[in-house]
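ZP: hey, is the SN-glycerol-3-phosphate complex queued? I don't see it on the tracker
AM: it wasn't, my bad. submitting now with these inputs:
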Amino acid sequence: MKFFIDTANLDQIKEAQALGILDGVTTNPSLMAKEGITGHDNILKHYKAICDIVDGDVSAEVVSTDFEGMIKEGEALADLHPQIVVKVPMIKEGLKAIAYFTEQGIRTNCTLVFSIGQALLAAKAGATYVSPFIGRLDDISTDGLVLIEDIRTVYDNYEYETQILAASVRHTMHIVECAKIGADVMTGPLNAIEGLLKHPLTDSGLEKFLADYAKGNS
Ligand code: G3P
């Protein structure tokens, strides 16, 4: 499973990259705003800065909601850097835009996906990635992981090449369960990724090894 970090914070992206396990970055307009990155030019500069840190795919989201606007924006984003994947919302115009980008060889991430039907449409339009938001489904008492399982089944039934990018991941168990289900990618915050490192038996075991080593050397 590929690991993407879901942030626009450059320090956190550098920290995740330094772990040696990072495969890419996802952002969205809210994550950009959270870092105080506003205005078209600053946002484009920020995408470039992210691409300079990581080797993998960097999702950059369009903010137009009409087909023409999405195409113009998406083409400009794709021209910005070869690592950019154009992120497009799952709306009617977005679906048309994904099909167009697929024709043009521009890679896409279909975002704001909350149902199997939406995921099916994204795959048929040729999206590179589909982003089901599992945390936001959990927020409304609907099991987000069940959606990942169902999309896995449907995509496997027809051998769709669209990669399932589990998004809105909030904690370590989301990551573990996504890996068990067979999501292709997960995108989550740094604390969820680093949470996978933790085990009390590792800590107590290491403490004992170091204490025993110190005895032998005293
Ligand atoms: O990857 C999608 C993500 O940015 C949304 O996460 O936590 O705002 O639901 P969240």
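AM: back. DSSP finds eleven helices and eight strands in the chain.
ZP: great, adding it to the tracker
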